[in-house]
Amino acid sequence: MILGPHTIIRLRAALITDPYSGEETQADWNDASNPPAELPITGCSVQPATAQPILRNMRQGVIVDLLVWAPLGSDITEADRAEYAGEPYVISDTIQRWDFPPLGHIVIPLQLVRG
C-alpha cells in the first residue's frame, strides 16, 4: 500500500559480538570500515510532529520530531536509524503496527537533534 510520496532510508548498523557470550549484542554505528546497511522504504508519508528549541551549554539547538507512516511489512526496527531528506534520525520510540486491511501500516517516530 502506498501511503505517500516519500522515501526514507533505513540504516542498520553491524552488530558487535559480545566477547563473553559470543552473541551479537549491540550496534556499532562508528565502524567506518563497515558502514550501516541501507534500505530504501518507499510509499511513506512523512509528517512533522514537533520541533522544540533547546539551549545546551550556551548553544542554541532544536529537536525535530517526525512521524512516518510506512507500508506494513517494512523492514525496520527500533534498533535501526533512518535518513530522510539527507538528515540522519534516530527511532525515538516504539514502532506501532496498525494491522487492519486495507489500511494496514506502521508508524515510525523519528527524532533529530541539531546543535
Question: Which key terms come to mind for this protein?
Answer:
115 residues, mainly beta, Thrombin, subunit H, two-stranded antiparallel sheet
Query: How many DSSP helices?
Result: 0
Could you tell me the mean pLDDT?
Answer: 88
Number of domains: 1
Q: Largest sheet, order of strands side by side?
A: 1-4-5-9-7-6
- The CATH class name reads Mainly Beta
Give the overall shape.
globular
Predict the CATH topology: Thrombin, subunit H
Proper CATH architecture = Beta Barrel
Helix content: under 10%
The whole-angstrom Rg is 16 Å
First-last Cα distance = 37 Å
- Count of strand segments: 9
The description of the largest β-sheet is: 6 strands, antiparallel, barrel
Strand and helix order? EEEEEEEEE
Structural class: mainly beta
Which stretches are poorly predicted, pLDDT < 50 over at least 5 residues? none
Question: What does it look like?
Answer:
- The protein has 115 residues and is an all-beta fold.
- It has one domain: Beta Barrel (Thrombin, subunit H), CATH 2.40.10.
- It contains no helices and nine strands.
- Strand 2 (14-17) and strand 3 (24-28) form a beta hairpin.
- The relative contact order is 0.26.
- The mean pLDDT is 88.
Task: Give a short overview.
With 115 residues, this protein is mainly beta. The chain has no helices and 9 strands.
Task: Lay out the secondary structure.
Elements: E1 6-12, E2 14-17, E3 24-28, E4 37-56, E5 59-71, E6 81-84, E7 87-91, E8 96-98, E9 105-114
